[in-house]
Amino acid sequence: MKVLIIGAKGMLGQELARVFQKEKPLLWDREEIDIANEEEVKQKIGDLNPDLMINAAAYNDVDGAEKNEALARQINGEALRYLASALHANQGILVHFSTDYVFIGDRREGYNELDQPNPQSVYARSKYFGEQELQANTDRFYLIRLSRLFGQPASSQVGKKSFVDLMVELAKIKKEINVVNEELSSPTYAPDLAKRTKEIIDWKKPFGIYHASNSGSCTWYDFTKEIFTIKNISIKINPVPTSFFPRPAARPKYSILLNTKLPAMRSWKMALKDYLSFIP
Hints:
By secondary structure, the protein is α/β, with parallel strands linked by helices.
């Protein structure tokens, strides 16, 4: 099976490269392909003709998207039309990742795979647009939604550190921090998501939408408390409302991703403990 991973230098892409290493995947990033260039995508994907293409590339600046709507729409939306169309012509399988932010966030119990998205921010609308373009241009797809990705920082120059890394770094220079005690969702550990992605392929699951965050849920404040407890860091954490940090983009208040199609993934607390064992 010829496997192509796009966004291979990102936080998730580098973990996908590890779990698919036996397949000797081709690893492409910004240097190898501009997914927002329709002609380039058509030519390069057509020439390569992969059996499986995993797209881990995305525009993930939630607040930045409010001022860069065209760019977010290109990368998160239109690019999916190009990728899906190019791959569909050769009957390949396309794996793509989306976000809990596609939901409005008014259901405390969370959202399952069949619930109707209702995105509120520019970023969220661009991701939902990508979901629609994917489904409109191929029927051989796995659309996997995740939330609050954390893991080893991306090797890409434009990659961001996760919330976990930022909190550990802040604790080294501050005596107390303010953290939002709202926005209930489920953290997702990049290695666990990569493993689950391969399982979906190996298990030959039906094409469609899947939710793949770690089990359990928390607010940002709960998340931070657990980070510092595991690392045995003594610091004062002040729970604050979302309004304490005014931001351009709206966030869903409740966006737990309910998994109804696959075995449950391990708890986010167990995954976090694993990850923090690598951070000094």
